Amino acid sequence: MVALFALDGVPAPQLSTPALLFGAASRTFYRRPPYELRVCAAQGTIATAPPGPLRITPERGLDGLADAGTVLVTGYGDCPGPPPPDVLDALRAAADRGARVATIGTGTFALAATGLLDGRRATTAWSHAPELARRHPRIEVELADWPVADGQFLTSAGVLGGKDVCVRIIEEDHGKEAALEADRQLFLMLPNPSDALRATSPTPHAPHAPHAPATEPPSENSPPPEPTPLTPLTPTTTWLESNLHRPLTLTDIAAHANTSVRSLNRSFRVHTGLTPLQYLLRARVRHAQWLLEHTDTPVEQIPTRTGLGTPANLRHHFQRLNGTTPTAYRTAFRTLVALFAPPPAPK
């Protein structure tokens, strides 16, 4: 649980960036629970910083910090004064019970006002670092390109709306590879095929995937299963994910689930929001996306590997659900991999 604690005057990107990045991270995590992000504030309504301030109604008040494993404090102005005493008490209480407390930009001023950073290293927006050092001489203020960690506290300059500190949190939780992957996913910003399938149904003119030949599924080039809550459908959806290459029909799926086609449709609607065939198509497109990202499988071979049948079907469904072609997606992804990959170690 990450509690995004928004102070009045927060720059709007510091609300949207954590939501986008932790959301991207959750989509990349396999066999791990996704992040839950909760927006909290000390008052019922807050305003974002100008220009064009927005009125925001947070999900929770200060009580939302009580059970969070991470509290992420937003910025709230240029060299701001200390927040109200109840805010300082809530931050101290979170730290006392062992929560990780992180800050974005001038949010460091709020954390500094608690006294929790005394004797520790910290950073903030570079232009405000001298004022932070003047007000809090017991803090060792650093000008850092990357968030500064000292114990359970993590402070940052707030680059790109807090992207830097969110990536660091993901790295601490799940490792550098997961953090880099989430960063890439954020910049790719592809729509979720699940959302697209919920919003649309195949049109009468859309080509449908023909039955692909029943070949053995790839053993080492298969993605891990997508994290989903355990439901009565879990054995069936797990089986589907393992048999995407096969020509599956509604009757096949119902037989595996040991139920009627009618009951199968109803159960899928209840637990996934999709019909069984929509779920199957979504899983095949997601598998194609994974192969494009993580393997050198030629695009012409991916339809057979995923059960999409033909290159034309692959292009049609991939374009409809992801807004781009398979080849363009692979090129864009690899460009971003090169951009975000760490530099090679010196020889």
UniProtKB/TrEMBL annotation:
<dbReference type="InterPro" id="IPR002818">
    <property type="entry name" value="DJ-1/PfpI"/>
</dbReference>
<dbReference type="InterPro" id="IPR009057">
    <property type="entry name" value="Homeodomain-like_sf"/>
</dbReference>
<feature type="compositionally biased region" description="Low complexity">
    <location>
        <begin position="209"/>
        <end position="219"/>
    </location>
</feature>
<dbReference type="InterPro" id="IPR029062">
    <property type="entry name" value="Class_I_gatase-like"/>
</dbReference>
<protein>
    <submittedName>
        <fullName>Helix-turn-helix domain-containing protein</fullName>
    </submittedName>
</protein>
<dbReference type="Pfam" id="PF01965">
    <property type="entry name" value="DJ-1_PfpI"/>
</dbReference>
<keyword id="KW-0805">Transcription regulation</keyword>
<keyword id="KW-0804">Transcription</keyword>
<feature type="domain" description="HTH araC/xylS-type">
    <location>
        <begin position="234"/>
        <end position="332"/>
    </location>
</feature>
<dbReference type="Pfam" id="PF12833">
    <property type="entry name" value="HTH_18"/>
</dbReference>
<dbReference type="InterPro" id="IPR018060">
    <property type="entry name" value="HTH_AraC"/>
</dbReference>
<feature type="compositionally biased region" description="Pro residues">
    <location>
        <begin position="220"/>
        <end position="232"/>
    </location>
</feature>
<dbReference type="InterPro" id="IPR052158">
    <property type="entry name" value="INH-QAR"/>
</dbReference>
<feature type="region of interest" description="Disordered">
    <location>
        <begin position="194"/>
        <end position="237"/>
    </location>
</feature>
